[in-house]
């Protein structure tokens, strides 16, 4: 088992010196992935192609993969903008050539079609994400949702089933009870058997068990913070590694 960790970075300005300093600090901890949360910036006009390319260039290397995310407000994003502006930002994100773009599964069909078509053209991978800040749905509900989503991709984009596996999926829930942790763990087990990359765990204090254990059961990576947290129940990278050292001897 490999403990792959993604560290989120909140982008609040286009001051490259500050961002470079933050990236250098994060990279000292040797995370496997860095996610730039672009929805934290107040002025979307600052998210130019050149700026996005620069932050990818500053952080991307053979050991560190880069994810660009502009999270929608309905799924925990900090800014609320119209669909046209969001589409423009996401297209700029793709042209910056990160390793991954994170896109919500519940985006409109036309939005997904436009974005995925460009991503395939530019050979940029997508992470299709689903966030529930209220509950943890039953496993059967999630597997049905994913099957319907995959079918929509196949039909709308005329891609084959093998291409579907090119796109990792991300299911993040909120634990209301400790046993809710079993849902993402079971989901990770099922999808890893199908060789489908998945990121999945529960948020909140009650979800910490799945957050620290998901990679043991097949999840691609988990999230941990260095400084500011971007989700409830997120623990520090140092704490995450200590838990894995004690529990799993890695």
Summarize the structure in short:
With 250 residues, this protein is of the alpha/beta class. The chain has nine helices and eight strands. The chain has one domain (5-248): Aldolase class I (TIM Barrel, Alpha-Beta Barrel).
Describe the fold and architecture:
It contains 9 helices and 8 strands. The protein is α/β, with parallel strands linked by helices. The chain has a single domain (5-248), classed as Aldolase class I (TIM Barrel), CATH 3.20.20.70. The protein has an 8-stranded parallel beta sheet. Strand 4 (100-104), helix 4 (109-122) and strand 5 form a beta-alpha-beta unit. The radius of gyration is 17 Å and the shape is globular.
Structural class, from secondary structure content? alpha/beta
| Number of helical stretches of at least 4 residues | 9
Superfamily (CATH H level) name: Aldolase class I
What proportion of the residues form beta strands (DSSP E)? 15-25%
Might you state the CATH topology name? Answer: TIM Barrel
Query: How many structurally independent domains?
Result: 1
Helix content: 40-55%
Shape: globular
Topology readout:
Elements: E1 5-10, H1 16-27, E2 33-37, H2 49-59, E3 65-69, H3 83-95, E4 100-104, H4 109-122, E5 125-131, H5 139-157, H6 161-164, E6 169-174, H7 182-193, E7 198-203, H8 208-213, E8 222-223, H9 237-248
Parallel strand pairs: 1-2, 1-8, 2-3, 3-4, 4-5, 5-6, 6-7
For the structure shown, list the relevant keywords.
250 residues, TIM Barrel, 9 helices, 8-stranded parallel sheet, alpha/beta, globular
